[in-house]
Amino acid sequence: MNIGIIGAGNVGGRLGKLWAAKGHSIIYGVRNPLTPKIQTIIAETEHNATAALVKVAAEKSDVVVLATPWEAIGEVVFQIVDVAGKILVDCTNPIEPNPEWPLSQGSSAAEEIAKRLPGFKVVKAFNSLGAGNLSDVTFGTVHADAFMCGDDADSKKIVAQLAKEIGFETIDVGGLRNAEMLESLAKLWITLAYQQGIGPNIAFKLLHR
Ligand SMILES: NC(=O)c1ccc[n+]([C@@H]2O[C@H](COP(=O)([O-])OP(=O)(O)OC[C@H]3O[C@@H](n4cnc5c(N)ncnc54)[C@H](OP(=O)(O)O)[C@@H]3O)[C@@H](O)[C@H]2O)c1
Hints:
The chain has 209 residues and is of the alpha/beta class.
């Protein structure tokens, strides 16, 4: 699968390396593909990874992973608004308010993105655990859950498959209207890890009986 990753940082860089190792083609969508930082990430990703401007990366991909700060969302959306027919995996968390994109009570980053990118099938995923855990989502014998939601069932199946390939079990949280819950889950993760002093080596798991 061709996976475009917009934002090659903590989240995007890690996901790119993991999926490349599973045989996917990775194209990082960045502001300047030629910087030493991006060249290093490409070299570390191996397996035929490349980088391109954001729009080109989106156009060339089946799945576009959005992993930029929430503050950058307007700039990214402006560049890809004409692209259509792709799955967009939204990893963002609107921790810092973005004055250009105010979120009303009960709304979510993912729903706002879906409204402004009608050509994309948006799935919220990979936002509710610290990026450092992505490289190893196994805790003892337990696999962390990847919670995801979205309105298109087929897109969710594809994202669930990508999550399983890197070690997650997956939980379908329903339609995109539930994305706010996943964004709140990220706030809970941050509170536990950093304010309550538990540390970042944690992830959520749904227990079944
Ligand atoms: N860190 C976590 O543990 C974690 C976990 C789950 C979800 N998230 C969410 O995932 C998103 C990414 O977090 P992160 O920690 O990976 O951030 P990060 O390490 O700061 O990386 C962000 C990336 O986005 C790029 N970027 C910034 N503005 C851009 C623009 N206008 N166009 C294209 N690329 C742009 C940055 O490029 P430059 O290097 O050129 O600035 C950088 O590569 C955030 O929304 C965050 O809330 C983070």
